[in-house]
Design goal:
Strand content: 15-25%
Structural class: alpha/beta
Number of strands: 14
Number of helices: 11
Distance between the termini: 20 Å
Strand order of the largest sheet: 3-4-5-6-7-8-9-10
Helix content: 25-40%
Shape: globular
């Protein structure tokens, strides 16, 4: 399918997918899920609930909960994952993948992000699982941040991703056939690592979020502390943001969209110890269009949002299309009254592109 466009004012692309999203559960799911279902045909669902999704049986139950919460008539398809721990059962993971219940396994280093307390403490403890995953072609999705070093000293949050790259490199060396996604990459160093692996034809890719294409670390502090701009991995320097943008619009198939939309209620974001996470599902594809248009690479939008991720996961491209037009709209200050409401990314600001109904 070829995209169609009218200059720089309108574009029609194959319906996109989101290869990294948090839809939570309960009342929060009811609030945020419709935004993702409206814009995406499929999405890789993150497993860091409380308690985490540790088995294929839990993943299947969670999938049913998501399907039941979808708006009537929605054709949205949740693609499920399980949460890797030191004690994960390789047989359970293999069965879940063979039965098409799960599409991937998520590795959170212990303590790296929201609900990662059950995460991996030492990569060697997961080798039996990784051996099975390599043999079966199950993707490993990595939250690539090193929280403490070998001396048990805490690492600066702005350095955690680049300090984790040798660990990913070690996994790649040990398991050369393992499919690896460097999730929500935020640094120039991370981009270079993925590019180098791509040049070697290793099965390595990275997801990039809309917000990391737009903000750098200075934005967290503009006019005071901005809880709505705080996420993990945290936004880095301007040079890193520019490296991400160049990678996203490059047309390289190792880079594709994963929104990492991660909602928290306003009361949990704007408090003494606010939660990390940026909610962007309300405008994820529109924000991507804004970035690609600004980079004069709108023709690459479909590849980034609709083709490369599907290719990596062995999925057929979606049949439907999405049309975006250059029609600005203003983002509300808050979405929803349940669970205290959620402050969206770019609240009270205009976004230049709109999805046509």
């Amino acid at each position: 399918m070829k995209i169609s466009s009218q200059g720089d004012q309108s574009i029609t692309i194959r319906r996109p997918d989101d290869f990294h999203v948090h839809v939570r559960d309960g009342e929060m799911m009811k609030l945020v899920l419709p935004f993702t279902a409206k814009r995406f045909a499929r999405a890789i669902i993150m497993p860091n609930l409380t308690p985490p999704v540790l088995t294929w049986q839990y993943a299947e139950a969670y999938r049913k909960e998501i399907v039941e919460a979808l708006p009537p008539g929605s054709g949205f398809m949740p693609l499920m994952t399980v949460y890797l721990t030191d004690q994960s059962d390789p047989h359970n993971i293999a069965h879940g993948f063979a039965e098409n219940v799960i599409k991937a396994v998520k590795l959170y280093p212990k303590g790296a992000t929201t609900n990662s307390e059950s995460g991996v403490t030492e990569i060697k403890k997961t080798y039996k699982v990784l051996e099975v995953m390599e043999r079966m072609g199950i993707p490993l999705l990595i939250h690539g941040e090193l929280v403490v070093d070998e001396k048990s000293e805490e690492i600066d949050p702005f350095d955690r991703e680049k300090r984790f790259i040798p660990i990913i490199a070690g996994i790649r060396k040990k398991f050369p056939g393992l499919k690896i996604v460097f999730e929500h990459v935020t640094t120039g160093e991370g981009i270079r690592f993925v590019r180098e692996e791509y040049s070697r034809k290793s099965p390595t890719a990275a997801t990039i979020t809309p917000h990391h294409l737009i903000i750098d670390r200075r934005d967290i502090f503009r006019g005071g502390i901005r809880p709505d701009q705080y996420c993990l991995p945290i936004a880095k320097e301007e040079k890193d943001r520019l490296a991400l943008r160049e990678a996203a619009v490059s047309g390289l198939s190792c880079f594709f969209l994963g929104t990492d939309s991660a909602p928290h209620s306003k009361e949990k974001k704007y408090c003494e110890c606010g939660k990390a996470g940026i909610f962007n599902a309300h405008a994820a594809i529109e924000l991507c269009a804004e970035v690609f248009a600004a980079e004069h690479r709108l023709s690459m939008l479909e590849a980034f949002t609709s083709r490369w991720g599907a290719n990596f996961y062995g999925l057929l491209p979606n049949e439907g299309t999405t049309t975006l037009t250059k029609e600005p709209w203003r983002v509300p200050a808050l979405y929803g009254g349940v669970v205290g409401g959620v402050v969206p990314f770019r609240a009270n600001e205009e976004i230049a592109w709109s999805v046509q109904e």
